[in-house]
Amino acid sequence: MPNLNREMNLMSILSIFRRAQVAHSKATWLSELFVPKRRKAISTVVMTAVVFVQLTGCALAQKAPVDAASRPVTDHKKVLYVTRLKHRDREEDDKVRAHLEERGMIVTMVDQTSPASAAAGQDLVVISSVVSARDMVGTSFRDVPLPLLTWESDLFDSLRFTGQKKGEDFGTLEKEHYINVVNAPSPLAGGVPAGKRWVYPRDGEMGWGKPAPGATVIATVPGEPDEAVLFAYEKGATMDYDFIAPARRVAVFLGNRTFEKLSADGTTLFDAALDWAVSAPVSPTRHPELPSK
């Protein structure tokens, strides 16, 4: 393919120069008709340059489509976005939705009362913190065999992300804007460096949880290494209550009205969580069996 692309590029360049030669002849002929002799040379050059630029622009406009490898992994992924459609904080969900669509995702927003069967044909389920966790206790979305991402910390226990004791196994900080990145090499960190990073410009809500050992922890509350604010489970990993993850699961730290406040690092972490969630699960490494003696 590289050789084919190189040949096509060379053919395009030769075509442009041939057209430029024709343009030069036309420009000379036009200058003979309409331009006084003392200005012919300058006019011919200018007219030739204009035509050449136009032809070059046309050639560039006809360039090959963007390589699929350079598109975001979220491109054309279908998202079922679960929220409360008639809640006052719904406008924040609209901002998240707009961001997902900017990344090429196709978003369907449904009310929290929708059955898990609504996820059929989707690539990702997103549960906003605008939902009422009390009304979604025991939610059937827990069992969907699709990636699921949420920032509703009060659902962490129902989704088997954490244990069931609020304030001990999960909770929400009312005033925090820093996180501590503890697993920078992970793709879930999106390249954000290790250490204390600010994700909001000022204090805001931040959900946290104490995940099971099967989780991958990316970031924690500063000074509280057991309180994770960004963590995930691979498909097949053991979650809390010995629940086996039917697909990838991701918990992020957002509050009801903090998405629009995200810093550059915060947005990078959110996007990395999306990318990881919809990417293909990593197959377990199989070690060769040792020969028997």
Compact description:
29% of the residues lie in helices and 20% in strands.
Q: Overview of this structure, please?
A:
The protein is an alpha/beta fold. The chain folds into two domains: 2-64; 69-278, Rossmann fold. The chain contains four helices and eleven strands; from the N terminus they run H-H-E-H-E-E-E-E-E-E-E-E-E-E-H. The chain has helices spanning 2-34, 37-61, 90-102, 264-278; strands at residues 78-83, 106-111, 124-127, 148-150, 170-176, 178-181, 195-198, 204-209, 216-221, 224-233, 249-251.
Q: How do the helices and strands line up, and which of them pair or pack?
A:
Elements: H1 2-34, H2 37-61, E1 78-83, H3 90-102, E2 106-111, E3 124-127, E4 148-150, E5 170-176, E6 178-181, E7 195-198, E8 204-209, E9 216-221, E10 224-233, E11 249-251, H4 264-278
Helix pairs in contact: 1-2
CATH class of the largest domain: Alpha Beta
Give the helices and strands as they follow along the chain: HHEHEEEEEEEEEEH
CATH topology of the largest domain: Rossmann fold
Regarding quaternary structure, how should these chains be classified? Answer: single chain
Low-confidence stretches: 1-11, 29-35, 37-67
Q: Write down the overall geometry.
A: globular
Strand count, sense and barrel status of the largest sheet are:
9 strands, mixed
Our estimate of the beta-strand percent is 15-25%
| Annotation field: number of helices | 4
The CATH homology group name of the largest domain:
Class I glutamine amidotransferase (GATase) domain
Determine the N-to-C terminus distance: 49 Å
pLDDT averaged residue by residue? 82
The neighbouring-strand order within the major sheet is: 2-1-3-4-11-10-9-6-7
Helix content range: 25-40%
Number of strands: 11
Supply the CATH architecture of the largest domain.
3-Layer(aba) Sandwich
